[in-house]
Amino acid sequence: MIKLIYKTLIVSSLMVATTLPVLAQQLMVSEGYVRATIPGTNVSSAYMTLKNNSNSAVTLIGATSDVSKRIEIHEHVMTDSMMSMRQRQQLVIDGGSQVQLQPYGYHLMIFNLDQPLVASENVTITLQFLQGEPQKVVLPIHSIKKLSKDSHKHH
Ligand SMILES: [Cu+2]
């Protein structure tokens, strides 16, 4: 197992030298957005689809951004019919599969925002992985109104 990871790392660094960041090809980020902050709060969540085009697993271990010093990987869990959030140390995206970060599922929780996040602006988030280079994504900020309208359909 350790040997295998070591091998992957060498291959990755070789590819970085000759082409674009390797994870940009292996891991595709789509449908990403960040929720606009609710007035009076300083937290938000980021959602996206992570698609792993490689044969080996890619492990998300965290994220950073200029807008906050504290971003955590979270998941929503149902306990005794109550929805609560739980922090995860990592999120594994198996080779050839995809994981969705979405409302009431996995998300990146953004804490201690210095400034409110305003709809139609962008947030740059750097995703950090166990394997390979960090990957920068620019996500649009969507207003909460649109979100609650969408989630209404499920009720
Ligand atoms: Cu959360």
Automatic annotation (TrEMBL):
Keywords assigned by UniProt, alphabetized: Signal
InterPro entries, A to Z: LpqE-like, Lxx211020-like, PCuAC_sf
Keyword Amino-acid biosynthesis: no
Domain of life from the UniProt record: Bacteria
Signal peptide: 1-24
Pfam families reported for this sequence: PCuAC
Name of protein: Copper chaperone PCu(A)C
